[in-house]
């Protein structure tokens, strides 16, 4: 019971930063794919406490099956996936259980220093690598160049952070990361 409550709480907390399943309301609330702080890694959180077999398939952009996991679900689970080894691209994570199947999406970019992924709707994932810095300032600008968000962040070699920009009306955004070593910008 305690594990079910914890997994459910993790799912609720993760919904603001997760790529949620596509599908009907019941299925989409069962699982979330959460980007990790480590580039190319995701955590699949499955919050259904009903015991049974859950099948997880990873497919590439062409629809080829790259990996299949059969998980004996007892009370929900959290499963890490390292997508970086698969190379740059968009991958489907198809989760099948007794109620049917639903799809989550993961995008892996080849990243040298900085990248931005649009996770869906108005959510954006900023990924930054700098082995020489341990802190930076993040600025997000709208299409007119007006600063709409700013914050400082501390990290070790890099970070990944998801921003929900749904409250900001703009046709595009520019993300800027300034550290003691450099300043980088990416526009979406």
TrEMBL record:
Asked if the Swiss-Prot or TrEMBL record annotates the protein with the keyword Signal, the reply is yes
The residues the entry assigns to the signal sequence are 1-21
Instruction: Work out whether the entry's keyword set contains Signal.
Output: yes
What UniProt keywords are attached to this protein's entry? Signal
What's the protein called, per UniProt? Por secretion system C-terminal sorting domain-containing protein
């Amino acid at each position: 019971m305690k594990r079910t409550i914890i997994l459910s709480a993790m799912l609720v907390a993760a919904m603001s930063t997760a790529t949620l399943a596509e599908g009907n309301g019941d299925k989409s609330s069962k699982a979330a794919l959460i980007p990790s702080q480590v580039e190319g890694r995701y955590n699949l959180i499955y919050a259904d406490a009903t015991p049974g077999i859950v099948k997880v398939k990873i497919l590439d952009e062409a629809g080829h099956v790259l990996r299949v996991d059969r998980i004996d679900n007892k009370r929900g689970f959290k499963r890490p996936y390292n997508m970086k080894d698969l190379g740059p691209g968009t991958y489907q994570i198809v989760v099948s259980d007794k109620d049917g199947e639903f799809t989550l999406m993961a995008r892996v970019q080849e990243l040298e220093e900085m990248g931005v992924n649009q996770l869906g709707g108005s959510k954006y994932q900023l990924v930054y690598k700098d082995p020489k810095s341990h802190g930076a300032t993040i600025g997000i600008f709208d299409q007119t160049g007006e600063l709409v968000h700013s914050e400082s962040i501390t990290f070790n070699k890099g970070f990944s952070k998801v921003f929900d920009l749904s409250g900001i009306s703009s046709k595009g955004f520019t993300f800027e990361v300034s550290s003691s070593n450099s300043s980088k910008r990416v526009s979406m």
